[in-house]
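Contributing new records

If you add data, match the layout below exactly. Sequence lines come first and carry their own label; structure lines follow with theirs. Keep one chain per record. Anything else will be rejected by the validation script.
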Amino acid sequence: MTGQPEQSTSTAPAPAPVAARRLPPGMVLGPDGKPCKACNSLRNMRLASASFPSKPPASTSPSPSRAAGSSSSSKTASAAASAFGLLTTPLLADDPLRSHCPADSEQLGRATWTFLHTAAAYYPATPSKEQQKQMLNLLRSLPTLYPCQHCAQHLGVEMQRRPPDVTGREGVSRWLCETHNEVNERLGKERFDCARVLERWRDGPADGSCD
């Protein structure tokens, strides 16, 4: 007995630097070096959760008091567990258990395209100079304000190559449709028939199924 504290001969391995961690294909990192929620799909975020945990859960097994809790508490716990990649059953991006979670790239993209296409569909057929200015300001703001930096930069390049047509409803609707189709092609998705863009976003189908 020397009275000196014993020195441990083993040390915990230091976490691997971000650049050295294995990432799913197509994973986009944010400025903080972690996967960007607005830039990646929920599927990729779940794949990366083991390499980039937000914070470890307190326990993987519920205590007796939690086990006897309400159904809403159980749902909240399940949603939290999914964020840490603890659930083996994949959750869809629109799963109600994730209604309190930040939007992933797919949710953000759908919401943004829905707003833009709908705004274009209700844009005047013969807009005033002020209306044209405001629509152009809206579209030009996206490369700066859209949360996914990678997507925003690509849109900025596309807008320089093919400037928006804000001279009327038909022009801006077609411009957005063609821009959306360009994105769909890059993602391996089908093109949308731009001749039907007002039917899709304003009038609804002729069979009245949306009335």
